[in-house]
Amino acid sequence: GLLGWYMVKSGLEEKPDSHDIPRVSQYRLAAHLGSALVLYSASLWTGLSLLLPQHKLPETKQLLRLRQYAHGTTALIFLTALSGAFVAGLDAGLVYNSFPKMGERWIPDDLLAFSPVLRNIFENPTTVQFDHRIL
Q: What stretches pass through the bilayer (predicted)?
């Protein structure tokens, strides 16, 4: 709840360039969504572990590999959801509304327009949308 309040508070602050449109920080939106996903997943895991009996499976190489793939897939889903929060926070979905190409190109010209380059991942609407599409 505290993180949700902190997120909403960022949208209620007066900004000279906002033209009376409430906008929350994409960082706070991603933090709020990430914490909600972690809390929901932990609650679901706990509830299912209490309701369902544990099966003892032999620790084979195939089972360990399957678990690694499952953890990797879970991490990619989590990362995709967080990148969606950045798309929503920056209204990046409005920049290029064609799919699968972005405009007339597969890789847009303004993908790395900001300096330093790392800033593009979190603040450039084109890069944020591109990353979300790739994920």
A: 29-52, 73-96
CA-CA distance, 17 to 48, in Å (whole number)?
48
DSSP labels for 9-26?
HHHHS--TTSTT-----H
**Per-residue confidence (pLDDT) for residue 19, from 0 to 100:** 61
Query: Is the separation of the CB atoms in 85 and 131 below 8 Å?
Result: no
Cα→Cα distances 44→29, 47, 52, Å: 22, 5, 12
For residue 93, the 8-state DSSP code is G
Long-range contacts of 64-70 (CB under 8 A, 24+ apart): none
Residue 109 lies in a domain: yes
- 71 within domain boundaries: yes
Report the domain count for the chain: 1
Nearest CA to 128 among 85, 97, 99, 98?
Answer: 85
86-133: pLDDT as tens digits? 999 999 989 998 888 998 899 999 999 999 999 999 999 999 999 999
Could you list the residue range(s) of the whole structural domain that residue 3 is in? 1-11+24-33+64-134
Q: How far apart are CA 123 and CA 126, in angstroms?
A: 9
